[in-house]
Give the backbone structure.
Amino acid sequence: MAGLRDKLPLLLGAKTAKALATALDIETVSDLLRHYPRRYAERGELTDIAGLELGEHATVLARVEKVSKRRMKARNGTILDMVITDGKRRLSCAFFNQAWREKDLVPGKTGLFAGKVSAFRDTLQLTNPEYELFEADREAEAMDDFLAAIIPVYPAAQGMPTWSIAKCVRQVLDVLEVDDDPMPAELRRLHRLSDLDTALHGIHRPDNWAHLEASKKRLKWDEAMAVQLIFAQRRHSAISRPAKANPHVGGGLLDAFDKRLPFDLTAGQRGIGDEIAEDLASDHPMNRLLQGEVGSGKTVVALRAMLQVVDNGRQTAMLAPTEVLAAQHARSLREMLGDLGQAGELGAAENATRITLLTGSMGAKERKKALLEIVSGEAGIVVGTHALIQDHVEFADLGLAVVDEQHRFGVEQRDALRTRGAGDTSPHVLVMTATPIPRTVAMTVYGDLEVSALREMPVGRSPIKTTVVPVAEKPAWFERIWQRVREEVGKGHQAYVVCPRIGDEPPSDKSDKRPPLAVLEVAPELEHGPLQGLKIGVLHGRMPPDDKDAVMRAFSGAKLDVLVATTVIEVGVNVPNATAMVIMDADRFGVSQLHQLRGRVGRGSVPGLCLLVTETLDGTATRERLAAVESTTDGFELSRLDLELRREGDILGAAQSGKKSTLKLLSLLRDEDVIAESRARAQEIVTEDPDLKKYRGLAQMVSDVVDVDRAEYLEKS
Ligand code: ADP
Ligand code: MG
């Protein structure tokens, strides 16, 4: 008999156990049994070949279509060419010097084929795939064995194909004994969940589809509960510190600011503004996430919140991910406030406050002055990078911290923020993100925050047209890109060219992939080639801050036609005259990043143009992602598509074959009910027993199922 914590060598033999550990990081019975099938193949139903990823280890259930043998010219050997099919698409396979396989691989036979996906002459290929052919269908029917009809397909690795994993799982399940179900019996009854033993059998070797579904449901609950328990504990500790209340002060700065606003707030800005105002007036710390597309007007919402707090005699901070952005925020806040933000200067309004910028690259004298304004409380609004919190800058009385671009700011930093209020209080916290995320993701990834979304855009935005440029299939289009850029410049507009890499890194010879295009290589090529005669500037994160500033100013002032840059321009940069963006090696960026990037164009009165240049081939998963970005500019719709396109295991950024990939079964797209219900249950349990002293099983499950660190990386990939 074997328990979940047992090691595998005794059960499977040292050799197999070692192979599992090396290939998939699987060490214990629990590791193996939580290595769930990626999908299930049904005998007679072939796998869709579309959607394979270059470089990935793939397993497909396919039919052999044709096989042919040829001699290699250069060396003395043979190649066996095979084409397999899902009935719609074909995938070519090549075996080197394995001609003897010809007698197994008879056209018409079906089986599982596994290997690393590569490209050969612009088509996808498996080289020397491992395979397991099925018995003739007649035999299977004769066996009349329903079990054999549902074939689990595991996330596999080279040398450890799915059918070998299945064999190990079978051996372990045969001797498995689960004596202690971590999920409390009452909760199982309430939500009709199978017990763990039944569920583990059912996920790997289902008797029928109903058994499989019931098992999945139970194991999804394990994942959902584990995640929600962590967040419930986090919420619990966040509100255990009080905050200071900041009620609305009639006739204060906020009222003065509202009176001068040159536009009407959108309904969303007003509604969310009211929610925030109420939070700020309470003595529980606010923990709110404000999401809204680039340009949806988050800054106004944040500024109004800050003014309400400043009206109560407290300080506020705005944290940005980069120095460029911090400086830009300080500038635009000063502009918006005018004389209301000029305390200490000539011509300041009567009860004006002061906006103080603090960045790491400031000179010693400037820095000292800023620090003094902050510690004395003179600065009502302090703007800086996240370092403002990490460096333990001392505030007189910090009442509210606004964090811009949340996805670069993790839970630990949020926790650090909570200790920065005066005395034992916690400041109110408002985090803002321009990456729209579906509600279920928000509940899961930012489960410790309340979520508000600005869904409408203020009037006067221009549309952005996005086009994928597949240069591998259509090389002629490459020329056309630069013609389009010249046309835009000819009309007096400007353009961005974005590359994934800077280009001053030491060369790495680890990868067989071409390194991504680099700013420092592409810029001179354009300058001496297709964009000759245009004024081209370069911007990347490793330039000295002064140089960065100078380039940004030159570009804003239209002294440059084209800016070749890394993703440093991704957030917050605002140059309305820039109308075109060319993203090189677009496949190297994530969906939300591409969406964010193109938000830099179409900010003026002219429609924007975004070209996604890629060498990836049609039919790959990467190309599907680019097509999604092309298909819509609605960030919420896009984040939903992105979620659909990602493999389940990738959702929280876990490595494909990594141990403890955070969520393997729970789909943030389809399991909204499980997520919402488990959130409620977790809240009840933590309220009753914050440290899970009475729920040892659950506490253990939290650490078994969830890799907390990984849960942070959703948008970083
Ligand atoms: P975000 O921070 O969400 O990207 P901003 O707050 O920077 O967006 O707003 C983008 C632009 O829209 C700014 O120039 C801002 O002044 C303007 N704006 C904000 N709210 C409104 C509104 N209700 N009506 C018109 N313009 C607005
Ligand atoms: Mg902004």
Remarks:
- Residues 139-147, 647-661, 708-717 have pLDDT under 50 and may be disordered.
- The two ends are 41 Å apart (CA to CA).
